[in-house]
């Protein structure tokens, strides 16, 4: 199952690159790095598991994502610059990471 998840993430990243005309070959790794950062966030985990509304989780996640950007920029300045210049691109990346984290937290309750 783990391999399926990675392929799905990779496919989403390919779509982002195709849509925005970018070629971030390590975008899947960056998304995974973001995922690792948020997987240990107990507050986000609680929001995903205890609320049927994804909106509550999404609002809090978006704030934490914005807070994490400067730290992540240190590891990939080109990607950070692209996200800062193109809000749509940033939204796509944020959405991929958020959905991945939400899915993992919700699956853990099943």
Could you please describe the fold and organization of this structure?
The protein is built from six helices and no strands. It has 110 residues and is mainly α. Helix 2 (27-39) packs across helix 6 (87-107) and helix 4 (54-73) crosses helix 5. It is globular. The relative contact order is 0.17. The model has no long low-confidence stretch (mean pLDDT 86).
Supply the key terms.
6 helices, about 110 residues, mainly alpha, single chain
Topology overview:
Layout: H1 2-20, H2 27-39, H3 42-50, H4 54-73, H5 77-85, H6 87-107
Strand percent estimate: under 5%
> How many beta-strand runs?
0
Report the structural category: mainly alpha
The helical percent reads over 70%
Instruction: Describe the main β-sheet briefly.
Output: none
The radius of gyration over CA amounts to 14 Å
Shape summary: globular
Termini separation: 16 Å
- SSE string, helix = H, strand = E? HHHHHH
Detail the poorly predicted runs.
Answer: none
Average of per-residue pLDDT values: 86
Nutshell version of this structure?
This protein is an all-alpha fold and 110 residues long. The protein is built from six helices and no strands.
């Amino acid at each position: 199952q783990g391999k399926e998840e990675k392929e799905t993430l990779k496919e989403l990243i390919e779509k982002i690159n195709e849509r925005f005309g970018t070629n971030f070959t390590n975008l899947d790794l960056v998304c995974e790095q973001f995922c690792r950062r948020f997987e240990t966030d107990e507050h986000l985990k609680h929001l995903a598991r205890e609320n049927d509304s994804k909106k509550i989780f999404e609002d809090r996640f978006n704030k934490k994502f914005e807070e994490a950007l400067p730290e992540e920029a240190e590891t990939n300045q080109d990607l950070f610059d692209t996200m800062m210049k193109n809000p749509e691109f940033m939204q796509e990346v944020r959405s991929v990471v958020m959905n991945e984290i939400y899915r993992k937290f919700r699956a853990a309750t099943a």
